[in-house]
Design goal:
148 residues; alpha+beta; Thiol Ester Dehydrase, Chain A; five-stranded antiparallel β-sheet; two-stranded antiparallel sheet; 7 strands; 20% helix
Length: 148
């Protein structure tokens, strides 16, 4: 399945309250930074968390990976990027945090979310058709081409 090129970027300046006692960003804040970019990405297709829930599906994060390349520091201007990588059976979104001045990668990561039915909390093995509608692509198994 060919996904559309879908990336969002959010600027951010590191505030003092994000730092740990070593004067670098506390590791737990990276999940929050990823979330800022993920919401910007989902807004691009009008399928952020309120829209997801309105369709009867919840999309919990089931895996989150972070690779700390360089530490982030107080008042550092950064750009947080989120890119859609997979959508057929799960949402896989990759992240890059870049220094705004140099463009150097500071952090990499990805998250994986799965669709869960809101009414019974059953996990879906295939993403629901509404996701493909929002992406503007045909859902898997619904080919309009000629048959055998």
């Amino acid at each position: 399945m060919k996904l559309p090129d879908l990336t969002a970027e959010v600027p951010y300046c590191i505030p003092f309250h994000d730092l740990d006692p070593m004067a670098i960003v506390w590791h737990g804040n990276y999940a929050r930074y990823f979330e800022l970019a993920r919401c910007a990405l989902l807004n691009k297709i009008d399928f952020n968390y309120p829209q997801m829930e309105a369709t009867g599906f919840l999309w919990p994060v089931i895996d989150l990976r972070v690779k700390y390349v360089r530490p982030l520091r107080f008042e550092q201007d950064i750009r947080i990027q989120a890119t859609l990588e997979e959508a057929e059976n799960r949402l896989k979104i990759s992240y890059r945090i870049l220094d705004a001045g140099s463009g150097e990668v500071q952090t990499r990561g990805h998250s994986i979310q799965v669709a869960v039915r809101k009414d019974n909390h059953e996990m879906c093995l295939v993403s629901p058709p509404v996701l493909f509608e929002k992406l503007g692509i045909e859902a898997p198994g619904h080919s309009t081409g000629g048959g055998i």
